[in-house]
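Input/output pair, single chain:
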Amino acid sequence: QVRLVESGGGVVQPGGSLRLSCAASGFTASMYHMSWYRQAPGMERDLVAQITSFTGGTNYADSVKGRFTISRDNAKNMVYLQMNNLKPEDTAVYYCYAKGARLGRQYEYWGQGTQVTVSS
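Output:
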């Protein structure tokens, strides 16, 4: 069974740091584009960061560039999001997301989310 399980969320003060982890099972995450999305109450779910399956290249939302870093450990089937210099507007539920293809079919998987709260 395919699963993405996030962990590492919590409550931090502005300027603080957190590292989120995404544990993938039931599929090989290295063959998928892996992303982090976030959704604040009453808002839409937006892309935060992505790391590609082929090149390992990354892209980020403008709001987090220079502060967040996405990475992957293929041996562990894990994806991470290092978040530094956190701001109150970073408060949201953060979701791990996988997208790939096999035998002509598209596959998309979502994690359950982990809460990040940035407050003084």
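The chain has a mean pLDDT of 96. The chain is about 0% helix and 55% strand.
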